[in-house]
């Protein structure tokens, strides 16, 4: 009887273990690494931290996530993030489609100059067939995509002069991210692009080794780029920078189905929070953010439609070249989605006063 009772207890224990761990899975780690490029004070950082906190709480500590900001797990080189994630050097990430475009060239669709016409067209891509196709590309690389977030539309700043036309960019030295597409865009506009990491860019701006950079307003504000000479800001909305909440495939497979659902649901909630946070100042009825920038001495230039069209025309050869490199079928789906959205409703410009 005792043996039967013992065998019964063992059976119950094994059954409970099977609930926690999938067949063939490894035990959970004591801590999982989660990488992001900016610091925790940005909407990107706050959304990521919310994801980690919700997962820890809802799994009752089974999945404990530590956030590593500023690309510290890659020695500051954000372009290595996706490779490190794919190889299992890091477990999770909320990463930029721009930074990951060297591994997934299709991500460059968001960086085709002046393809997008505002937030609604961006949403049409990420939440539609284009977004689903891009997620399939991510999965093919051994990474599980869970939700779309947003770094924002990228604007251009410099320390020398206001930019209202392509001629104003001639000869200016700009830091660009590690995608050859950005090299082509800035070269077409007569500027001198230099690829460097974000940490290198801050030092170069401070030392006046470069004249300018391009980034979303939230990054400009959080890094206080006005304190390193960036006094001229042009709102041109030329490309967008979605971010993606992801998990390494082996890590994902090590979790129980119940915990996977928790992680996925938390990612969707955190991404929704992050997008709202990233947009709220830019689309609010007040002008607090813009007034704050101008009070700090930043001269904000908002292009007229005619001025913006000159940049569109100047970068058109780059668009045509990269449409073929990104994939004609994918880009045509994106163009159709933008066109359909534009017909249904007019999207506001990020720089528009409302």
For the record, what CATH class applies?
Alpha Beta
CATH-defined topology: D-Maltodextrin-Binding Protein, domain 2
Give the fraction of residues assigned to helices: 40-55%
Count of helical stretches: 14
Tell me the β content: 15-25%
First-residue to last-residue Cα separation: 79 Å
The shape, in one word, is: globular
Mean pLDDT: 90
The SSE order reads: HEHEHEHHEEEHEHEHEEHHHEHHH
| Shape-level CATH architecture | 3-Layer(aba) Sandwich
Keywords: Signal, Transport
Protein name: C4-dicarboxylate ABC transporter
Family: Belongs to the bacterial solute-binding protein 7 family.
Pfam families: DctP (PF03480)
Q: What does this protein look like?
A:
Helix 2 (43-58) links the parallel strand 1 and strand 2. Helix 2 packs antiparallel against helix 10 and helix 4 crosses helix 14 (328-344). Residues 1-6, 8-20 and 347-354 have low confidence and may be disordered. The radius of gyration is 22 Å and the shape is globular. The termini are far apart. It has helices at 2-20, 43-58, 81-86, 119-126, 129-140, 180-188, 198-206, 217-223, 249-254, 257-283, 288-295, 305-314, 316-326, 328-344; strands at residues 32-35, 65-68, 92-96, 143-153, 155-158, 173-176, 192-195, 212-215, 232-235, 240-248, 299-302. With 354 residues, the chain is of the alpha/beta class. The protein has one domain: D-Maltodextrin-Binding Protein, domain 2 (3-Layer(aba) Sandwich), CATH 3.40.190. It has a six-stranded mixed β-sheet with strand order 7-6-8-5-9-11, sandwiched between helices.
């Amino acid at each position: 009887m005792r043996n039967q009772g013992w065998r019964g207890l063992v059976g119950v224990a094994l059954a409970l273990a099977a609930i926690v761990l999938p067949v063939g899975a490894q035990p959970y780690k004591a801590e999982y690494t989660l990488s992001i490029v900016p610091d925790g004070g940005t909407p990107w950082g706050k959304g990521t931290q919310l994801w980690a906190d919700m997962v820890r709480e809802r799994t009752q500590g089974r999945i404990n996530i530590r956030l590593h900001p500023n690309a510290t797990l890659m020695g500051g080189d954000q372009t290595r993030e996706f490779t490190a994630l794919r190889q299992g050097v890091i477990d999770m990430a909320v990463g930029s489609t721009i930074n990951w475009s060297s591994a997934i060239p299709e991500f460059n669709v968001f960086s085709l100059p002046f393809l997008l016409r505002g937030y609604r067209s961006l949403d049409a891509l990420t939440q539609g067939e284009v977004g689903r196709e891009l997620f399939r590309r991510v999965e093919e690389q051994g990474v599980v995509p869970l939700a779309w977030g947003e770094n924002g539309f990228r604007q251009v700043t410099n320390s020398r002069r206001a930019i209202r036309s392509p001629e104003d960019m001639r000869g200016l030295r700009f830091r660009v991210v590690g995608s050859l597409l950005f090299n082509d865009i800035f070269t077409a506009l007569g500027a001198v692009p230099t690829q460097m990491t974000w940490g290198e860019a801050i030092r170069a701006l401070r030392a006046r080794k470069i004249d300018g950079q391009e980034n979303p307003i939230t990054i400009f504000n959080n890094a206080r780029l006005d304190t390193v000479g960036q006094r001229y800001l042009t709102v041109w909305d030329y490309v967008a920078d979605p971010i993606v909440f992801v998990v390494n495939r082996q890590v994902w497979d090590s979790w129980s189905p119940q915990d996977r659902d928790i992680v996925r649901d938390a990612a969707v909630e955190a991404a929704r929070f992050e997008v709202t946070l990233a947009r709220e100042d830019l689309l609010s009825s007040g002008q607090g953010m813009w007034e704050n920038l101008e009070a700090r001495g930043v001269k904000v230039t908002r292009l007229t439609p005619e001025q913006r069209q000159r940049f569109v025309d100047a970068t058109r050869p780059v668009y045509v070249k990269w449409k073929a490199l990104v994939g004609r079928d994918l880009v045509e789906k994106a163009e159709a989605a933008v066109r359909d959205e534009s017909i249904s409703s007019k999207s506001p410009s990020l720089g528009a006063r409302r």
